[in-house]
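Lecture 7 notes. Example A: sequence first, then its structure tokens.
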Amino acid sequence: MPAPSSKKTYCPSCGVEVDTYVILESGNEVTHCASCGLTLTDHREPPPIKTLDYIIYAEDSDLLRNLITRLLVDKKIGREVIPCKNGAEFISNATRRLREKQPVNLGILDVEMPIINGIQAAVSLREIEKGLSAKKKIPLLFFTVRKCDDEFKKFLKSFEPSSYVNKGASDSPEELANRAYRVISKLLSSV
């Protein structure tokens, strides 16, 4: 990886000012977050996301799960958002949809949950997709209070298409939803 630059830039995934690095991609300089790798070159508002038909969202906090679910619908990110209390409910809903050949446009997983956490749910989901010969992988967005370190970057790479949002860096659910919107926009543009 190239050496970080001295210029700090806001990263919506990390939720803070971060060091950056630049990579030459297709003849263009592209700036990335040195912490999580998110592309940061375009600082304009992201283009509107085409409303997704079906999102499954797993979060063990009732308050946050209800607020984020409502915000995803209100901001027209998802037409239908299925809230789940844990990874087991997430896997159950995703498996049912995949078996019925119904789309799941995005999965959102809290990393720390009881019963089945977000990491275990992601592992299970990718195996289920493989077993059911899914045509494409469900893009995954992970919510966590952890900062993105090298181990977590490897984890994200192994579950591509995937990204993360450090939910601990947000002061309100509204701010978290706005940051998530930006990251989802980048995640879906790479699919």
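Example B, a different protein, same format:
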Amino acid sequence: MKILYGVQGTGNGHLSRTRALLPSLQRPGVEIDFVFSGRKQEDFFDMGDFADFTVLQGLTLIFERGRMQIGKTILGNNIFRLIKDIRQLDLSGYDLVISDFEAITAWAARLQEVPCIAVSHQCAFYQNVPRVKGHLASQLLMKFFAPSKTSVGFHYHHFDQPVLPPLIGPHAAGKLLKKKIVVYMGFEDLNDIIAFVEPFTDYEFDIFAKVENVQHLGHIKVNPLSHTVFHEQLMDCSGVISNAGFELSSEALSYGKKLLVKPLAGQYEQLCNVLALEKMGRATAMDCLDQGILKRWLQQDSEPALNYPPVAEPLADWILNPNRPSLATLARQVWGSR
């Protein structure tokens, strides 16, 4: 079987989920090529897991200081180039397309009538999971951005719906350092983040940001983006400060880290994530970089880890099975009695 796997590159959550699923798909007789879109090729990092990949422009949302910049988003996306890439992507040699919220591969598969399976957190919102009211335009964008007849969604909890647990790679427990906090807020201004945590000198903050070299600023360390180093630091920290993207917040729950999240202003998916996390009692949320909220959060105890069942292997079995059972059957199998 030959598979084309499309991955949305805005942020790093889609890439992390793909890394977690890939080893279970790499089986005898299965060949996988990759298309990444949503950021410039030079902005991708630690791509050694993906032997054969192509980077296309695709679509991206532009954020500055935690807020989507509508004008820059419109001007920064070339719709004509997107249409051209969709039409020129030749799928004649592929048996299946997998799309993790990647528009070019999903639309090309629809136009060329190639089987396509969408696997993303966004697909969970096709089900009756917690959502904020309003944001109709965002809901429509999520529905039509990367369409597929077969869609598999991931969420923090099943909410009695046919969704799967978060798809998280294997990890080892580290010695918990109560005063160590990992910070990744890729859509915020770095200087704003440093000023936000600077007064709390009793704590060690490991910030990950788009910098060339490590910067030591007393109790604050700013690290270049690195999948490996980030997860090494994540193992022994007591808490995570982030925007409200799904993949990192899922990892924090799975690793037993307390979670402080600031959803991107007006970003429907992240607002829904906050709603779900608050319903579960598993995160503190803030609308801005509020030092009062941070002070109270730092004093909280760590959270017990959520022991999510394995997802990658049963999902890969399901994807590669030409006679797939229903998604509801797969969800029941994966969640079991949890």
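Note on Example B: The mean pLDDT is 91. The first helix runs from residue 13 to 25.
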